């Protein structure tokens, strides 16, 4: 069965247990007022807009008992896993490890580092704590995917042009068939999101496919019918 997608239809695996939903960095510090994203002057309402659709897609996976992976961008409290090039980047008033409105920024276990309540992981759903932009760098993500026999990934979350795109490119290089769910990912900058969608599906799907959540769920229903 297929999902109606760009640049052409995306073929789902006959066994949907080989399809995983990857939800990237839907963290309070990025999506809620008073968090890190807000402190940097971004409109967090843009990111919040995808939550209902992403929750519907998540519930579809949960109802069928299919694999779900959540990622959280974070660092150890001593910042030993944060390279100086990342720590010092930006010249802003706040940087990684500083005390923000929801605790220390991008530090594991701090209130702002947690996933928003609407998408909070359930027992049995894998949470990948990642120190980089991509989900594969310095994590057990690849090992977890291989252990579950995953071959296809639906990539969602924030932000489109940074952690979502990086993860999709990493996955593409490792042989996974990836689809970015268009209305389940967002950026603080709408033009960046649009450019990313166009880049990943360019030249016959050089990185992968894109499609709206409704098309993805319709394709999944066709497999199980």
From TrEMBL:
Residues 20-207 form the Isochorismatase-like domain. CDD domains: cysteine_hydrolases (cd00431). InterPro entries: Isochorismatase-like_dom, Isochorismatase-like_hydrls, Isochorismatase-like_sf. Keywords: Hydrolase. Pfam families: Isochorismatase. One of its GO terms (molecular function) is hydrolase activity. This is Cysteine hydrolase. It comes from Drouetiella hepatica Uher 2000/2452.
